Amino acid sequence: MGKITGFLEFDRQEQKYQLAADRVRHFREFTLPLDEHDLAKQAARCMDCGIPFCHGPTGCPVHNQIPDWNDLVFQSDWEEAIRNLHSTNNFPEFTGRVCPAPCEEACTLNLENQPVAIKTIEQAIADRAWNMGWVKPEPSATQTGKRVAIVGSGAAGMAAAQQLARVGHEVHVFEREPKAGGLLRYGIPDFKMEKRHIDRRVKQMEAEGVQFHYKVNVGVDKPVDELTAEFDAVLFAGGAEEPRNPQLPGQELDGVHYAMPYLVQSNRRVGAEPMPGNGELPIIAASKNVVVIGGGDTASDCVGTAFRQGALSVTQLDIRPRPPEREDKLTVWPYWPTKMRTSSSQAEGAEREFQAATLGLEGDRKGRLTGVLCARVDEKRQPIAGTEFVLPADLVFMAIGFASPLHKGMVADSGVSLDKRGNVLANEEDYRTSHPKIYSAGDMRRGQSLIVWAIREGRQAARSIDEDLMGESVLPR
Ligand SMILES: Cc1cc2nc3c(=O)[nH]c(=O)nc-3n(C[C@H](O)[C@H](O)[C@H](O)COP(=O)(O)OP(=O)(O)OC[C@H]3O[C@@H](n4cnc5c(N)ncnc54)[C@H](O)[C@@H]3O)c2cc1C
Ligand code: SF4
C-alpha cells in the first residue's frame, strides 16, 4: 500500500474530457490524461483492503491485481506495473478506454461515492508502456507443432490467439471483415477508442507468429469441416450479431435502421476503408432529427456519432424508468448498481425520454419516416392509454440489443448445440462445444456482453485448448 492516509488526503480525480462543443467537431478520442503527479496521488488513494472486492468476483472480470499496480504507480515503478497488468489482461489499453469499470463500483471507497480512479490508472499504465516502448512481441522459444484456428478477431479471438501463440502453437485467425478487432473496430466509434490501438496489437501478435486471414467468412467461404480437418482445435469467437427486432409497425420506412449498419458505415468512413459494394446507401445524420430506440452502449454510440455528423437533434428513448441518482449502497454494494448514468455521448446534448415505449413509426405517402409514436409505460412496461405522443424524426436507429450469434453460416454448418437463448453451448470451465474439436468464447458463447468479459473468455478458452492439446498448460485461467 502506497500511502496509508492517501484516501483521506486526496479527492478522487478522473481524466477530464474536452468540452462537448469541441469534441463533437471530430471523431478522435477526447480524454485529457492526468499528469504523473496526479496519477500517483490517485493510486495512493487505494487502501489495499483485506478483501479487495475490486479484483474479486464482483469486480474486474479478468481479475486485474488492482491494489498491486496502484502501489507500483505510487512508487513510480511503471514498468513493473505494466508487467503486472499484462499478467491478467492482454489489452489494458482497450479496457482502460471502454470498460464500464465494475471494479470501481466494487471499490470499498465507493461506499462513500469516491472510488479509486482505477480505469484512469489502468489506461495510464498501458499508454505509458506503449509510449516507452516496453510493449514488445513475446514469441514462444519453442513450437508445439499443434495448429489452432480461431474464427473471429474480436477481443475474445485476439486474446485467445495471443495466449495460444505465446505457448508455441501455430495460430491462424480467420476474420470475415477486412481488418481485425470485431466490435472494437466496427461497432465502437473512434471517439471512444481509436483503431490505432488495435493495429499495433495486431502487429505485435503477427510478430509473435499469429497469422491473420481476412475476408474469410467461415461457413460461407470456407466450410467448418475444412477447418476441423486442417487444425487440431478450432475456437468459435464470432460474437453475437443477430439484432433484437422490436417488430414495430412502420419499420420498413425509409429512414429506419438497425444501429449496427449505421455504426459500421461510420467506422469505415472514419477509418478511410472502402464501403462494401453491396448497394447499401449511406446513412448520415447531418441536418436530421434523430431518434435512438434503446438505452445501452450501442444506443449511446449512435447518439455520439449522430452529433458528430451534424444532427439537428438527438432523442433517446428508454423503456425503463428513470433510475435514482444514487444507489442504496447497503443493499447493492459491491455489485453493479442500477443508477442514473450519463455517457459522454448523452452529455453532448441528447434529450432522454424514460418510461417511453415505441408504439410505431410514422411516414409520409412516399414511405419516408416522419415521426415516432410513443407512449409512457406503467411498471409492467405496458403503454398507458392517453399518454401517447409523437416525436418528429427523419432518422431512427433501433438499438435494443442483440439476441444471439448469427446461426446462418458457421454455426449451422458446424452443427454445434445451442443453449436456450440460441448462443453456442459451452461451459465456462473448458469452453468445449458439442463438437470434439470446437470450442467457443466471448459473445458467441455468453451472449452480448463486454470487452473485458470477451478478453477473459478468450484467455480461459486458450488455457482449455492448450491443456487438451498438451495434457497440461502454463497459461493462467
Ligand atoms: C455498438 C457497440 C458498442 C459497445 N460498447 C462497449 C463498450 O463501450 N464497452 C464494452 O466493454 N463493451 C461494449 N460493447 C460490447 C463489446 O463490444 C462486445 O461484448 C465484445 O466486442 C465481444 O467480443 P467478441 O470477441 O466476443 O465478439 P466481436 O467483437 O463481435 O467479434 C466477433 C468477430 O467475429 C467475426 N466473425 C463472425 N462470424 C464469422 C465467420 N463466420 N467467419 C469469420 N469471422 C466471423 C466478426 O466479423 C467479428 O470480427 C459494445 C457493443 C456494441 C455493439
Ligand atoms: S478491466 Fe474493467 S473492471 Fe477490470 S480493472 Fe480495468 S476498468 Fe476495472
Can you walk me through this structure?
The chain is α/β, with parallel strands linked by helices. It folds into 3 domains: 6-132, Fumarate Reductase Iron-sulfur Protein, Chain B, domain 2, CATH 1.10.1060; 147-241 and 403-470, FAD/NAD(P)-binding domain, CATH 3.50.50; 246-400, FAD/NAD(P)-binding domain (3-Layer(bba) Sandwich), CATH 3.50.50. The protein has 18 helices and 17 strands. It has helices spanning 6-9, 20-23, 36-44, 66-74, 78-86, 92-98, 102-106, 118-131, 155-166, 183-186, 196-207, 224-230, 259-270, 297-308, 329-332, 410-414, 443-446, 451-470; strands at residues 16-17, 31-32, 147-151, 170-174, 211-213, 233-236, 242-243, 256-258, 289-293, 313-317, 351-353, 356-363, 369-376, 389-392, 395-398, 402-404, 438-440. The strands form 5 sheets. Strands 5-4-3-6-17 form a 5-stranded parallel beta sheet, sandwiched between helices. α5 (78-86) packs across α8 and α9 (155-166) packs parallel to α18 (451-470). It binds flavin-adenine dinucleotide and iron/sulfur cluster. Flavin-adenine dinucleotide binds next to α9, α10, α14, α17 and α18.
Summarize the structure.
This is Dihydropyrimidine dehydrogenase subunit A. The chain is an alpha/beta fold and 477 residues long. 32% of the residues lie in helices and 14% in strands.
CATH class categorisation of the largest domain: Alpha Beta
Q: Look at the helices and sheets and give the structural class.
A: alpha/beta
Helix amount: 25-40%
* Principal-axis shape: globular
Main β-sheet: number of strands, strand sense, barrel status?
Answer: 5 strands, parallel
Average residue-wise pLDDT: 97
The small-molecule ligands in this entry are:
flavin-adenine dinucleotide, iron/sulfur cluster
Rounded Rg: 23 Å
CATH architecture of the largest domain: 3-Layer(bba) Sandwich
Tally of domains: 3
The neighbouring-strand order within the major sheet is 5-4-3-6-17
